[in-house]
Amino acid sequence: xxxxxxxxxxxxxxxxRSICETGTVWxxxxxxxxxxxxxxxxxxxxxxxxxxxxxxxxxxxxxSCITGEWHDYKPIEIPLNxxxxxxxxxxxxxxxxxxxxxxxxxxxxxxxxxxxxxxxSNELKQQNREIKLHQYKNMAELVEEIEKxx
Length: 150
Description:
By secondary structure, this protein is an alpha+beta fold. The chain has one domain (2-149): Trna Endonuclease, Chain: A, domain 1, CATH 3.40.1350.90. It has helices spanning 2-22, 59-64, 80-94, 113-126, 139-149; strands spanning 24-30, 33-34, 36-43, 49-55, 74-79, 97-100, 109-111. A hairpin with an 8-residue loop joins strand 6 (97-100) and strand 7 (109-111). 29% of the residues are buried.
């Protein structure tokens, strides 16, 4: 169990590094929307699992999850700035979580969308990269706003 947790955390760290390097996030989509799962770790006020939206760092890993309930999904590419401003912020506002780099067995990392934005910002700094945001002057301004409300 602990070994699985370590691997899942390492896969999440690879997810953050990779999406910062490529500027791209992958999701699975069908006619009803993006692929979702239920949290194994977090519950809402009524004790129900929180819904999480799944994202991947590369198309191959996303495609490998097109099985079972997700058999009719197709991989879609999302620019990193769109992922941050539309998906992360939107999912946070709706009370959802993000699942990163889930595998075919539905093992993956579950993260608060705002915490993910902060991790992405830190990784972008480490990689000496900057991305253009539409609703914020830069990542530092967005993280500053997040930290005001955290």
